[in-house]
Prior knowledge:
By secondary structure, this protein is an all-alpha fold. Helices cover about 70% and strands about 0% of the residues.
Amino acid sequence: xGAAPLxxxxxxxxxxxxxxxxxxxxxxxxxxxxxxxxxxxxxxLQATTKPQTLGLLLILLGVAVNLEFENSxxxxxxxxxxxxxxxxxxxxxxxxxxxxxxxxxxxxxxxxVGEDIDADARAREVRTVQPSSPEPGPSSRSVDGVDRAPxx
Length: 152
């Protein structure tokens, strides 16, 4: 009996590619389960952003292993776009949900957005409460019609 044939380079690349794509698919599946199972919006946003981005990155890396560089360079743009936009979109959705009242402020451990909103509201309140300069009225004019500062 002869020895078993050794695996070629293409066979190793196929195994690495399959492992990366399976890991990416598993990451996406766990993110989807987190989306369904987690109780509140911030946790769901976390479950949709991080595992989905990692899953896509692993799947595209698994595909790129089997392609030539010229063809796989397009996948780099897809990964870059995903990595740059997913956190921004998650942040915008989270802020919108917070401002609309969909997130319970008491359940948050750190509430930076609430502090910013409260500070903005206080600044607006101070601007609207400040009295304007008194306009000369009948009480600030003397008998001869000359404007005088009101007495305090």
